[in-house]
Design a protein that fits this description.
binds nickel (II) ion, Aminopeptidase, 11 helices, single chain, alpha/beta, elongated
Length: 388
Amino acid sequence: MPVINRIAEFHRDVTEWRRDIHAHPELLFDVHRTAALVAEKLKEFGVDEVVTGIGKTGVVGVIKGRKSGSGKTIGLRADMDALPIREIRDHPYKSKTDGVMHACGHDGHTAMLLGAARYLAETRNFDGTAVVIFQPAEEGGGGGREMVKEGMMERFGIDEVYGMHNSPGIPVGQFALRSGPTMAAADTFAIDIEGLGGHAARPQRCIDTTLVGAHIMTALQTVVSRNIDPVESAVVSVTTFQAGDTFNVIPQTARLTGTARTLSADARDLLEERMGEIVRHTAAAFGAKATLDYQRLYPVLSNHALQVEFAGSVAAQIVGDNVDMEMPPVMGGEDFAFMLEARPGAFINIGQGDTAYLHHPEYDFNDEIIPIGCSYWARLVETAMPAG
Ligand code: NI
């Protein structure tokens, strides 16, 4: 059974919504226009309850099946925010906001979940409750965490929760997922170094913070290569190094920032601990002082085995054998991890074909996959809670 016929019929409508959202990208929690559009559409579809302002600008819609009292409640989640990237392609629905674009396909995720909500509200061919979740601030703001913190799972009685992301490089008509750790814990760090500034021709009177920073930066790379178990996965990337303003002054201070990724809680603890030791002691070896400010952002996204089996079987209803149940984990982070900490569920990747990669200025969501994604959402609800 491939794409649902009724859903194929409104492919054009969903494409229009997608392109409208694409032309009006918004950042982090400031997704006011997008959230208003989502709420308006849900009401138009006859969704039973529409709640706005959850997790600042998140929107939740409740769709009751034929016997909503007796069945389960399944949450389906999409993200609404864009990225601070300048779009370089020149299609008719190009971003109208300079320097902001939908470079991760969240425009497509939002439109596909709206399409599924329209179908589910129209057909109600299930026995239970579907909760459609539209979250803000996936790209670094923790919008999913905010929604969970505000008690969304309890308030709507959500038993299981599912997420989906488009994936460039995976062919159209394919899905991929895995059980267990799937995406990395994504943390950030800042290292502040204090030395002794002075004349660059008299280094003996100074404590050179640029040299200390260089040693710290190099030593940090030994955490992954020498401390983390080689069969584990971890990344430490120093991405900025700021020090000094001119060529003949040794700067008093220097600052390094970067990101750290791990696929297990143990590796995450070890990495933070070792980074702290290296930062303090390397600086001390040169007579400088340095501090590590390590911020834990998103936890490891860990899929639950039972729900992965189920999600894979639903995807197979749409695309047959083209479901990879053992995709390799990736070191990118995902805010949906907070929802999977709160409830069992699964995060699936939907193939978007051979396009520019996520977060690239040439990226564009592939509208061809809309009926596949909408059908997956609809069948997930209908299969999890079959109408009696
Ligand atoms: Ni994304």
